[in-house]
Specification:
Distance between the termini: 51 Å
Radius of gyration: 23 Å
Order of helices and strands: HEHHHHHHHEHEEHHHEHEEEHEHEHHH
Strand content: 5-15%
Number of strands: 10
Shape: globular
Number of helices: 18
Structural class: alpha/beta
Oligomer: single chain
Bound molecules: D-arabinaric acid, zinc ion
């Protein structure tokens, strides 16, 4: 070095205040705080016990997760048609054989199953699933849910609730027990993705809407949203959208967003969540596993944030290529909260890259992750992996800061982790999850 000596302020013989962390203490302090801070899991596909059979859990659901189905057909000759014709247990057996016995389960989704088995002290390389099946068959769902959330360090999970789902609709109509561990969200995909399908369902429910979203359709859609807001008390409304999403646009979707959904969110003072970049059913033979990703034009987000400053937006984008511009937009609009590393992005290498980029551009003003769990026990491995990826990354940020001359204390780390994994979401939704 050309004569400039770089010193960390407290690593020499200098005295330091007791609670200032040294370089080598940072990572374990971060690990400590991460493991002792319960998170709010702000987007999942889990359901509260009072939504009964909608909630998936146990070994056969874990193994037949669509992330694993997507991998099965790369390592087995079975066709999707033959696979989907099998009963659930036979599907799980086929996946166990192909991905866990005949191959080493090194992918993110397969490792996840291994981690869950290990968490319950079940065999991770057994010839079949009999022991795991016997274990899950003896669990009481209510105590099991509490135990799993405790093991995962999750204090509340946010659900995805579809008021037009044939199975879910009657459960809400009959009344759902309020459960502080499970927060509802109104999911608007059916309405905002393909209006030609659900409009007559809404009409049959007594809302005077039509196929063109004309006439009284807009006030009637607002009435529908208000009815469901009252029934569900959702923490936000949400929609997932294709890579081709544009706003404003001259379609029923654009009109319903502008004239019904955004004003409703404003009226109820809740955010609207956009998950952008999914290309649905590029291979329909794979069913849920048949969706892919496309780079979106985030000028739609720019227009929304600028034209609706009274609305708060939660935004996740599926394409890796969209991540940087999402951060830039968040710097322009403080009604935009980037969240999560969604779906195909929820792999350590990509989570690391995206989170680093977000910290560098946004400090702690974003929500690093949600689990997207569909099967209860997945929260165990998904949050464990998130914490494992986050720890060195946050520690590195503190190391750089210490070298720049600002001492870092454990209380700083506690404040930051709480903000990232809890309070950014709580403040955005005006909701206190205890
Ligand atoms: O990650 C997933 O499970 C996807 O299938 C989707 O459900 C996605 O997360 C979504 O909410 O649309
Ligand atoms: Zn999801």
């Amino acid at each position: 070095m050309d004569g400039i000596s770089v010193k960390t302020p407290y690593s020499e013989n200098q005295c330091r205040h007791q609670d200032v962390l040294l370089d080598h203490e940072l990572e374990s302090a971060v690990e400590d705080v991460l493991s002792s801070t319960p998170v709010v899991d702000m987007h999942t596909h889990l359901f509260s016990p009072s939504l009964g059979k909608l909630g998936l859990w146990g070994i056969d659901e874990l193994i037949t997760y669509h992330y694993l189905e997507g991998e099965l057909f790369r390592s087995s000759d079975i066709t999707p048609e033959r696979y989907f014709a099998l009963p659930k247990q036979d599907r799980a057996d086929a996946i166990w054989r192909a991905l866990f016995l005949e191959n080493t389960p090194v992918s993110e989704a397969t490792r996840g199953v291994v981690a869950v088995l290990k968490a319950f002290n079940l065999p991770t390389d057994g010839p079949d699933l009999s022991e795991a099946r016997a274990f899950f068959a003896t669990q009481n769902v209510h105590t099991h849910i509490r135990q799993v959330l405790r093991m995962a360090g999750v204090s509340a999970v946010v659900m995805t609730n579809d008021p037009l789902d044939r199975d879910e609709f009657p459960l809400w109509i009959n009344g759902i027990d309020n459960d502080t561990n499970f927060q509802p969200v109104i999911r608007l995909d059916r309405i905002l993705r393909e209006w030609s399908e659900p409009w007559d369902l809404l009409a049959s429910l007594g809302y005077a809407v039509d196929a063109q979203a004309s006439g009284r359709s807009i006030p009637e859609l607002r009435r529908f949203l208000a009815d469901w807001y009252k029934r569900m008390r959702p923490v936000y409304m949400a929609v997932s959208l294709p890579d081709s999403f544009q706003f404003p646009d001259d379609t029923p979707r654009g009109k319903m967003l502008r004239e019904a959904v955004l004003p409703a969110c404003q009226e109820f003072d809740i955010p609207l969540s956009f998950m952008i970049g999914v290309r649905r059913q590029v291979n329909p033979r794979l069913r849920l596993a048949g969706d892919a990703v496309g780079k979106a034009d985030l000028r739609a987000v720019e227009n929304l944030c600028r034209d609706f400053p009274e609305n708060r937006f939660l935004v996740s984008v599926l394409s890796r290529e969209n991540q940087h511009e999402l951060c830039v937009y968040a710097r322009k609009f403080n009604n935009l909260m980037p969240f999560g590393c969604w779906w195909f992005l929820n792999n350590p290498s990509i989570v690391e890259e995206i989170t680093r980029e977000r910290i560098e551009l946004l400090g702690t003003s974003f929500i690093p992750q949600h689990s997207d769990a569909r099967v209860l026990e997945q929260v165990i491995y998904k949050w464990r992996n998130t914490r494992a990826t986050m720890a060195p990354l946050l520690a590195q940020s503190y190391r750089l800061l210490t070298r720049d001359g600002r001492p870092v204390r454990k209380s700083d780390i506690q404040r930051d982790v709480k903000r990232l994994f809890r309070s950014n979401f709580e403040q955005w939704t005006n909701h206190n999850h205890s």
